[in-house]
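Q: Given only this backbone (71 positions), what sequence would you predict?
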């Protein structure tokens, strides 16, 4: 993938698909991969914020804080 935006979009789309299928663990892994490959992009994406708010767990605590889901 040539850019961080594309990495973030790719993993966000994968996470959204897993979320719709009810595959929570895979959704979490895809969100964490998005943050790993493109942290700035992942933190700025509204879709990531929506997905994180729907499945906040210990694993996503750091990401949730970065996207403003936890207060």
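A: Predicted residues:
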């Amino acid at each position: 993938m040539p850019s961080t935006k594309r990495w973030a979009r790719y993993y966000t789309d994968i996470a959204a698909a897993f979320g719709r299928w009810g595959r929570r663990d895979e959704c979490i892994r895809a969100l964490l991969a998005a943050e790993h490959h493109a942290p700035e992009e992942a933190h700025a994406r509204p879709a990531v914020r929506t997905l994180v708010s729907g499945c906040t767990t210990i694993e996503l605590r750091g990401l949730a804080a970065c996207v403003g889901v936890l207060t």
